[in-house]
Design a protein that fits this description.
Purple Acid Phosphatase, chain A, domain 2, six-stranded mixed β-sheet, 6 helices, 17 strands, globular
């Protein structure tokens, strides 16, 4: 990689900000970990309950939404019923929803059964002045990520065939986030990814899930962002697995027509009930 990574200061109070015409207001929801059985839990937390809680909290925010990004680990058991359920929930937002798989998803099952109005699993989508590229970083049967040649070719072509401002999305982190245990499950070939991005000056940001924690930094002019899960959180900057007491949350992004990205993470007010802080894994 030719550029160093530096910290970035999150923006705040986006819901009180006036934006120029053409701004896309985007919501990122990630790592929902739903199940076919609505009473199933992850680390003692009912993931459907917390997902619905996050959605209610977002709607109380009165953010006039233009698009939604769902960045993986959507259905923990990768069940057709689970994908149907989350598709119906996401469709209810009434805006385009762009989805990609995580390591707990099974991409072919997800693409077959995540079908609902305005919900897309297409890799490249244009909206306004922006292009969204949704990459599949799943390594079947493994927790870590990898960008296969077809995904790198897809990205290169998407960037070469358009000059819109571009937000590249994936599930696994392409850079270390500072938690040693989860950084062993990052994308294992970030070099080719950044070689492609470095050739295209209209890439404005990279967004991911997977880490269940907030990360906000810059690599040159490209903003790097991860976001909290809608269920269980992982404690930042830990060498070993540790569940955080931070509540669930979501990320807001304002994608301005001039290519700037304004973004903030919002947490819900209440801690999920029944959280198993002593668990040794997920």
């Amino acid at each position: 990689m030719t550029a160093s990574i530096t910290g970035s200061t999150p923006d705040n109070h986006l819901r009180d900000t006036d934006f120029p015409a053409g701004t896309l207001r985007v919501l990122q929801l990630t790592d929902t970990h739903l199940y076919a059985d609505p009473i199933r839990t992850l680390l003692g937390v009912n993931t459907l309950d917390t997902f619905q809680q996050v959605i209610r909290y977002f709607r109380d925010f009165h953010w006039p939404l233009d698009a939604l990004l769902a960045t993986g680990d959507l259905v923990h058991d990768a069940s057709p019923k689970g994908y149907k359920q989350i598709g119906e929930i996401l469709s209810g937002f009434g805006v385009p929803v762009y989805c990609l798989p995580g390591n707990h998803d099974v991409p072919p099952v997800m693409r077959e059964h995540l079908r609902a109005a305005r919900v897309h699993t297409t890799a490249v989508m244009d909206q306004g002045a922006w292009r969204f590229v949704m990459l599949d970083s799943v390594k079947p049967g493994e927790e870590g990520g990898h960008l296969a040649p077809d995904q790198l070719e897809l990205l290169d072509e998407a960037l070469a065939t358009g000059d819109r401002h571009t937000l590249v999305c994936m599930h696994h982190q392409p850079v270390d986030v500072g938690s040693a245990w989860i950084d062993t499950m990052a994308i294992d070939n970030p070099g080719p990814l950044f070689e492609i991005i470095d050739r295209h000056s209209h890439v404005r940001g990279i967004l991911w899930g997977h880490v269940h924690q907030t990360f906000d930094a810059r690599r040159g002019a490209v903003r790097l962002m991860s976001s909290p899960s809608t269920c269980v959180q992982f404690t930042p900057r830990q060498d070993d697995f540790q569940v955080d007491e931070e509540p669930p949350g979501f990320r807001l992004l304002a994608l301005l027509p001039d290519g700037r990205i304004l973004s903030e993470v919002v947490r819900v007010d209440e801690m999920p009930q029944g959280l198993d802080l002593a668990s040794g894994g997920y």
